[in-house]
Amino acid sequence: MADLAVALRERLGFCLRVARSSVPHREAGNGLWLEGRAPLGSVVALYPGVVYSSEQYRFIPGYPAIDKGNSYIVGRYDGAVIDAKPWGAGDPAG
């Protein structure tokens, strides 16, 4: 994995690594860190999953306790929530 990071950094000017979060909270686990420099507006990562707008929150499995047992829930800057849990099909109602 270290060889891949070196190759990416040489080719793209940056690479990503997972390390302890700098968020000062007892439940803050790991964070994603960029090493090097990425041009403004660059896509540096993709986070695939089921995207729920605020109007669709009630369809998130486990609603309203959507993060219970699911560490793959991520909130976006626009209020949308991404559920990237690698199993299951999202809302069974479709």
Structure, described:
- The structure is a single chain.
- This protein has 94 residues and is of the alpha+beta class.
- It has two domains: 1-36, no CATH class; 46-94, no CATH class.
- It is built from one helix and five strands, in the order αβββββ.
- The protein has one helix at residues 2-12; strands spanning 14-20, 30-36, 50-52, 73-75, 81-83.
- The chain is elongated.
- The N and C termini lie far apart (38 Å).
- InterPro entries: SETD9 (IPR040415).
Mean pLDDT: 87
Intertermini distance: 38 Å
**Major sheet size, sense and barrel closure:** 3 strands, antiparallel
Shape field: elongated
Strand content: 15-25%
Radius of gyration: 16 Å
Order of helices and strands: HEEEEE
Low-pLDDT runs: none
The number of distinct helices, counting runs of at least 4 residues, comes to: 1
| DSSP E strands, number | 5
Strand ordering within the main sheet: 3-5-4
Query: In the residues, how many domains can be counted?
Result: 2
Helix content class: 10-25%
Class per helix and strand makeup: alpha+beta
InterPro entries: SETD9
